[in-house]
Target: Transcription elongation factor SPT4
Amino acid sequence: MSGPAAAIPPQPRAKALRACLLCSIIQTPADFRKHGCPNCEELMQMKGYPDRIQACTTTHFDGIIAVVDPETSWVARWQRVSKYVRGMYAVRVKGRIPEDVEAELESRGIKYRPRDQSEQD
Model:
């Protein structure tokens, strides 16, 4: 059950938390700046770029799920995060990824599905 995991943000910083628009992981802006997104850094390229963090994450999200064992969790499968690292995830994220990231996903044959639950599976 061990493996890569995102840090659990401390309580006093809860109002500053941001959710990745692609995978919905929740971290502090400092964690995104220092480490990038643990799931989709290759596409989002946020590490060390505050402007990119602003474009690729949001403070507008609903609900939080703690995913401890993504591979066996039915909630992780339901939220489409079962292949991602352990951590805190938003149930619903408001906003869309930047057009360049969406184009990159499309070029790789990956269909982008917003995490605001506007498109149901």
Observations:
- The chain is about 25% helix and 15% strand.
